[in-house]
Amino acid sequence: MDATQLMDASRWSGEIGVVASAAIAWATAVLPRLIGALLLLIVGWWIAGRARKAVARLLDSQTRIDATLRTVISSLVRYSILVFVLVAVLGQLGIQTTSILAALGAVGLAVGLALQGTLSNIAAGMMLLWLRPFRVGDYIDTGSVAGTVIEVGLFASELHSWDGIYQFVPNSELWNKRIINYSRLGTRLVDLKFGVAYEDDIARGLEVLLKLAGEDERTLKEPEPGVFVDELGDSAVVLRLRVWAATDDYWALRRALTERGKAALEAAGLSIPFPQRDLHIKDAPDGTIERAVA
pTM here? Predict the structure, then answer.
Protein backbone atom coordinates (compact mmCIF):
# COMPACT_ATOMS: atom_id res chain seq x y z
CA MET A 1 0.00 0.00 0.00
CA ASP A 2 1.55 3.30 -1.08
CA ALA A 3 1.41 6.61 0.76
CA THR A 4 -1.65 7.88 -1.21
CA GLN A 5 -3.74 4.86 -0.24
CA LEU A 6 -2.70 5.22 3.38
CA MET A 7 -3.80 8.86 3.38
CA ASP A 8 -7.19 7.95 1.81
CA ALA A 9 -7.80 5.19 4.34
CA SER A 10 -6.90 7.50 7.20
CA ARG A 11 -9.23 10.20 5.87
CA TRP A 12 -12.17 7.75 5.46
CA SER A 13 -11.66 6.33 8.92
CA GLY A 14 -11.66 9.87 10.34
CA GLU A 15 -14.89 10.78 8.55
CA ILE A 16 -16.56 7.57 9.70
CA GLY A 17 -15.51 8.33 13.24
CA VAL A 18 -16.98 11.85 13.01
CA VAL A 19 -20.28 10.50 11.64
CA ALA A 20 -20.39 7.81 14.31
CA SER A 21 -19.69 10.35 17.04
CA ALA A 22 -22.43 12.62 15.70
CA ALA A 23 -24.88 9.72 15.51
CA ILE A 24 -24.10 8.68 19.07
CA ALA A 25 -24.50 12.24 20.30
CA TRP A 26 -27.82 12.60 18.44
CA ALA A 27 -29.09 9.31 19.79
CA THR A 28 -28.03 10.23 23.32
CA ALA A 29 -29.83 13.57 23.11
CA VAL A 30 -32.92 12.71 21.04
CA LEU A 31 -33.67 9.03 21.59
CA PRO A 32 -34.73 9.46 25.24
CA ARG A 33 -37.11 12.22 24.14
CA LEU A 34 -38.56 10.03 21.38
CA ILE A 35 -39.07 7.15 23.78
CA GLY A 36 -40.60 9.47 26.37
CA ALA A 37 -42.91 11.05 23.78
CA LEU A 38 -44.01 7.62 22.54
CA LEU A 39 -44.71 6.40 26.07
CA LEU A 40 -46.55 9.62 26.84
CA LEU A 41 -48.69 9.19 23.74
CA ILE A 42 -49.53 5.57 24.56
CA VAL A 43 -50.35 6.31 28.19
CA GLY A 44 -52.34 9.41 27.27
CA TRP A 45 -54.33 7.49 24.68
CA TRP A 46 -55.10 4.79 27.25
CA ILE A 47 -56.09 7.34 29.90
CA ALA A 48 -58.39 9.12 27.43
CA GLY A 49 -60.18 5.88 26.63
CA ARG A 50 -60.53 4.94 30.29
CA ALA A 51 -61.76 8.42 31.16
CA ARG A 52 -64.42 8.26 28.44
CA LYS A 53 -65.70 4.92 29.73
CA ALA A 54 -65.66 6.13 33.33
CA VAL A 55 -67.59 9.28 32.47
CA ALA A 56 -70.08 7.24 30.42
CA ARG A 57 -70.70 4.90 33.37
CA LEU A 58 -71.08 7.86 35.71
CA LEU A 59 -73.57 9.58 33.43
CA ASP A 60 -75.55 6.36 32.95
CA SER A 61 -76.07 6.22 36.71
CA GLN A 62 -77.39 9.80 36.81
CA THR A 63 -81.07 9.87 35.93
CA ARG A 64 -81.13 13.68 35.94
CA ILE A 65 -78.87 13.86 32.87
CA ASP A 66 -80.63 13.37 29.56
CA ALA A 67 -79.53 10.28 27.65
CA THR A 68 -79.03 12.43 24.56
CA LEU A 69 -76.11 14.26 26.19
CA ARG A 70 -74.27 11.28 27.66
CA THR A 71 -72.46 10.12 24.53
CA VAL A 72 -71.48 13.66 23.55
CA ILE A 73 -70.11 14.55 26.99
CA SER A 74 -68.05 11.37 27.25
CA SER A 75 -66.64 11.94 23.74
CA LEU A 76 -65.73 15.55 24.58
CA VAL A 77 -63.83 14.37 27.65
CA ARG A 78 -61.81 11.93 25.54
CA TYR A 79 -60.95 14.47 22.83
CA SER A 80 -60.00 17.12 25.40
CA ILE A 81 -57.54 14.74 27.06
CA LEU A 82 -56.08 13.80 23.67
CA VAL A 83 -55.48 17.47 22.84
CA PHE A 84 -53.53 17.98 26.08
CA VAL A 85 -51.58 14.77 25.43
CA LEU A 86 -50.64 15.95 21.94
CA VAL A 87 -49.37 19.28 23.29
CA ALA A 88 -47.36 17.44 25.96
CA VAL A 89 -45.85 15.11 23.35
CA LEU A 90 -44.76 18.05 21.23
CA GLY A 91 -43.20 19.69 24.28
CA GLN A 92 -41.39 16.44 25.11
CA LEU A 93 -39.85 16.49 21.64
CA GLY A 94 -38.52 19.99 22.24
CA ILE A 95 -40.91 21.70 19.87
CA GLN A 96 -42.15 25.14 20.87
CA THR A 97 -45.85 24.54 21.47
CA THR A 98 -46.77 28.21 21.13
CA SER A 99 -45.61 28.35 17.54
CA ILE A 100 -47.16 24.94 16.87
CA LEU A 101 -50.51 26.09 18.24
CA ALA A 102 -50.36 29.19 16.06
CA ALA A 103 -49.58 27.06 13.03
CA LEU A 104 -52.33 24.62 13.94
CA GLY A 105 -54.72 27.55 14.21
CA ALA A 106 -53.87 28.64 10.69
CA VAL A 107 -54.14 25.07 9.42
CA GLY A 108 -57.42 24.68 11.28
CA LEU A 109 -58.80 27.76 9.59
CA ALA A 110 -57.83 26.42 6.17
CA VAL A 111 -59.27 23.00 6.96
CA GLY A 112 -62.41 24.62 8.31
CA LEU A 113 -62.95 26.48 5.07
CA ALA A 114 -62.45 23.25 3.15
CA LEU A 115 -64.75 21.27 5.42
CA GLN A 116 -67.68 23.63 5.76
CA GLY A 117 -70.13 20.77 5.50
CA THR A 118 -68.53 18.95 8.43
CA LEU A 119 -68.46 22.11 10.51
CA SER A 120 -72.11 22.72 9.73
CA ASN A 121 -72.86 19.25 11.04
CA ILE A 122 -71.00 20.07 14.26
CA ALA A 123 -72.86 23.37 14.61
CA ALA A 124 -76.16 21.64 13.93
CA GLY A 125 -75.32 18.94 16.49
CA MET A 126 -74.58 21.58 19.13
CA MET A 127 -77.87 23.35 18.41
CA LEU A 128 -79.78 20.07 18.57
CA LEU A 129 -78.18 19.29 21.92
CA TRP A 130 -78.85 22.80 23.19
CA LEU A 131 -82.47 23.19 22.07
CA ARG A 132 -83.28 19.47 22.21
CA PRO A 133 -86.24 19.21 19.82
CA PHE A 134 -85.94 15.46 20.39
CA ARG A 135 -84.26 13.07 22.80
CA VAL A 136 -82.95 9.54 22.64
CA GLY A 137 -85.94 7.21 22.36
CA ASP A 138 -88.22 9.71 20.57
CA TYR A 139 -89.80 8.85 17.22
CA ILE A 140 -89.33 11.73 14.77
CA ASP A 141 -90.13 12.47 11.14
CA THR A 142 -88.48 15.16 9.01
CA GLY A 143 -90.19 14.29 5.75
CA SER A 144 -87.10 12.59 4.33
CA VAL A 145 -86.04 10.69 7.45
CA ALA A 146 -88.17 8.97 10.07
CA GLY A 147 -87.29 6.69 12.96
CA THR A 148 -86.52 6.29 16.64
CA VAL A 149 -83.54 8.32 17.84
CA ILE A 150 -80.83 6.02 19.17
CA GLU A 151 -77.88 8.41 19.50
CA VAL A 152 -77.15 12.09 18.84
CA GLY A 153 -73.46 12.75 18.09
CA LEU A 154 -71.45 15.83 17.21
CA PHE A 155 -71.39 14.99 13.50
CA ALA A 156 -74.36 12.71 12.89
CA SER A 157 -77.26 10.98 14.59
CA GLU A 158 -78.36 7.36 14.55
CA LEU A 159 -82.01 6.51 13.87
CA HIS A 160 -83.79 3.17 13.58
CA SER A 161 -86.93 3.05 11.44
CA TRP A 162 -90.03 1.10 12.43
CA ASP A 163 -89.19 -1.64 9.91
CA GLY A 164 -85.71 -2.25 11.37
CA ILE A 165 -83.62 -0.04 9.06
CA TYR A 166 -80.45 1.59 10.43
CA GLN A 167 -80.08 5.27 9.45
CA PHE A 168 -76.94 7.38 9.94
CA VAL A 169 -78.08 10.96 9.36
CA PRO A 170 -75.83 14.08 9.28
CA ASN A 171 -76.98 16.57 11.89
CA SER A 172 -77.38 19.34 9.33
CA GLU A 173 -80.14 17.33 7.63
CA LEU A 174 -82.03 17.19 10.90
CA TRP A 175 -81.45 20.80 11.90
CA ASN A 176 -82.50 22.34 8.57
CA LYS A 177 -85.78 20.42 8.36
CA ARG A 178 -89.18 20.65 9.97
CA ILE A 179 -89.14 18.04 12.73
CA ILE A 180 -92.28 16.21 13.82
CA ASN A 181 -91.77 14.56 17.21
CA TYR A 182 -94.42 11.91 17.87
CA SER A 183 -93.10 11.04 21.33
CA ARG A 184 -92.47 14.45 22.90
CA LEU A 185 -95.94 15.05 24.35
CA GLY A 186 -97.52 12.70 26.85
CA THR A 187 -100.91 12.38 25.13
CA ARG A 188 -102.20 12.01 21.56
CA LEU A 189 -105.58 12.30 19.89
CA VAL A 190 -107.09 9.19 18.35
CA ASP A 191 -109.26 10.40 15.47
CA LEU A 192 -111.44 7.81 13.72
CA LYS A 193 -114.19 7.93 11.10
CA PHE A 194 -117.04 5.42 10.68
CA GLY A 195 -119.57 5.49 7.84
CA VAL A 196 -123.17 4.36 8.39
CA ALA A 197 -126.10 4.15 5.99
CA TYR A 198 -128.47 7.09 5.54
CA GLU A 199 -131.44 5.04 6.66
CA ASP A 200 -129.75 4.00 9.93
CA ASP A 201 -130.42 5.55 13.34
CA ILE A 202 -127.64 8.16 13.58
CA ALA A 203 -128.28 8.87 17.27
CA ARG A 204 -127.92 5.18 18.04
CA GLY A 205 -124.61 5.09 16.19
CA LEU A 206 -123.25 8.04 18.16
CA GLU A 207 -124.30 6.42 21.40
CA VAL A 208 -122.64 3.11 20.51
CA LEU A 209 -119.31 4.73 19.61
CA LEU A 210 -119.23 6.91 22.72
CA LYS A 211 -119.97 3.93 24.96
CA LEU A 212 -117.28 1.89 23.21
CA ALA A 213 -114.67 4.58 23.84
CA GLY A 214 -115.58 4.86 27.53
CA GLU A 215 -115.27 1.12 28.10
CA ASP A 216 -111.59 1.02 27.16
CA GLU A 217 -109.30 1.79 30.12
CA ARG A 218 -106.71 3.37 27.82
CA THR A 219 -109.12 6.17 26.92
CA LEU A 220 -108.41 9.26 29.01
CA LYS A 221 -111.28 10.88 30.89
CA GLU A 222 -109.82 14.35 30.37
CA PRO A 223 -110.24 15.66 27.76
CA GLU A 224 -113.55 13.88 27.40
CA PRO A 225 -114.20 11.63 24.39
CA GLY A 226 -116.29 13.19 21.65
CA VAL A 227 -118.41 11.81 18.83
CA PHE A 228 -120.36 13.75 16.16
CA VAL A 229 -121.63 13.68 12.59
CA ASP A 230 -118.67 14.84 10.52
CA GLU A 231 -119.83 14.57 6.93
CA LEU A 232 -122.74 13.63 4.69
CA GLY A 233 -120.89 11.59 2.13
CA ASP A 234 -121.95 10.25 -1.23
CA SER A 235 -122.75 6.81 0.16
CA ALA A 236 -122.69 7.17 3.95
CA VAL A 237 -123.13 9.44 6.92
CA VAL A 238 -119.67 9.80 8.44
CA LEU A 239 -119.49 9.59 12.23
CA ARG A 240 -116.30 10.87 13.85
CA LEU A 241 -114.92 9.56 17.13
CA ARG A 242 -112.21 11.48 18.98
CA VAL A 243 -110.57 10.24 22.17
CA TRP A 244 -107.31 11.08 23.93
CA ALA A 245 -104.80 8.46 25.02
CA ALA A 246 -101.32 8.25 26.45
CA THR A 247 -98.71 8.40 23.71
CA ASP A 248 -97.51 4.88 24.49
CA ASP A 249 -101.08 3.55 24.08
CA TYR A 250 -101.91 5.45 20.89
CA TRP A 251 -101.47 2.76 18.25
CA ALA A 252 -102.90 -0.06 20.35
CA LEU A 253 -106.01 1.96 21.19
CA ARG A 254 -106.45 3.15 17.62
CA ARG A 255 -106.38 -0.39 16.25
CA ALA A 256 -108.69 -1.67 18.99
CA LEU A 257 -111.31 1.06 18.51
CA THR A 258 -111.25 0.60 14.73
CA GLU A 259 -111.92 -3.11 15.01
CA ARG A 260 -114.41 -2.93 17.89
CA GLY A 261 -116.19 0.08 16.40
CA LYS A 262 -117.19 -1.81 13.27
CA ALA A 263 -118.36 -4.79 15.31
CA ALA A 264 -120.30 -2.61 17.76
CA LEU A 265 -122.12 -0.70 15.02
CA GLU A 266 -123.11 -3.90 13.24
CA ALA A 267 -124.26 -5.45 16.54
CA ALA A 268 -126.49 -2.41 17.12
CA GLY A 269 -128.17 -2.93 13.75
CA LEU A 270 -126.33 -0.26 11.81
CA SER A 271 -124.70 -1.02 8.49
CA ILE A 272 -121.41 0.25 7.12
CA PRO A 273 -122.07 0.94 3.43
CA PHE A 274 -119.61 0.91 0.59
CA PRO A 275 -119.54 3.32 -2.37
CA GLN A 276 -122.18 2.38 -4.94
CA ARG A 277 -124.09 3.83 -7.90
CA ASP A 278 -127.69 3.33 -9.08
CA LEU A 279 -128.19 2.75 -12.83
CA HIS A 280 -131.58 3.76 -14.27
CA ILE A 281 -132.55 2.49 -17.76
CA LYS A 282 -135.59 3.85 -19.62
CA ASP A 283 -136.87 3.88 -23.21
CA ALA A 284 -136.46 7.02 -25.31
CA PRO A 285 -139.16 8.22 -27.77
CA ASP A 286 -137.09 7.13 -30.78
CA GLY A 287 -136.78 3.61 -29.43
CA THR A 288 -133.26 3.94 -28.10
CA ILE A 289 -132.39 3.18 -24.53
CA GLU A 290 -131.18 5.95 -22.28
CA ARG A 291 -128.98 5.20 -19.31
CA ALA A 292 -128.64 7.49 -16.34
CA VAL A 293 -126.25 6.98 -13.50
CA ALA A 294 -127.18 8.36 -10.08
Answer: 0.59
φ, ψ dihedrals at 190, nearest 5°: -95, 115
* pLDDT given for residue 204 in this prediction: 94
Domain with CATH 2.30.30.60 in the chain: 134-181
Instruction: Determine which helix (DSSP H) or strand (DSSP E) holds 273, and give its type and residue range.
Output: none
Q: Name residue 281's beta-bridge partners.
A: 291
Helix H, strand E, coil C: the string for 259-294 is HHHHHHHHHCCCCCCCCCCCEEEEECCCCCEEEEEC
Could you tell me where in the chain the CATH 3.30.70.100 domains are found?
187-267
Domain 12-114 has what CATH class?
Answer: mainly alpha
Residue type for position 57: R
DSSP-assigned letter for residue 275 = -
| CATH number for the domain formed by residue range(s) 187-267 | 3.30.70.100
| CATH 2.30.30.60 holds for 134-181 | yes
Determine if the peptide bond prior to 223 is cis (ω within 30°): yes
Look over the chain and give the mean of its residue pLDDT values, rounded to a whole number. Answer: 80
**What is the phi/psi pair of residue 151, to 5°?**
-155, 140
CA 49 to chain CA centroid, nearest Å: 25
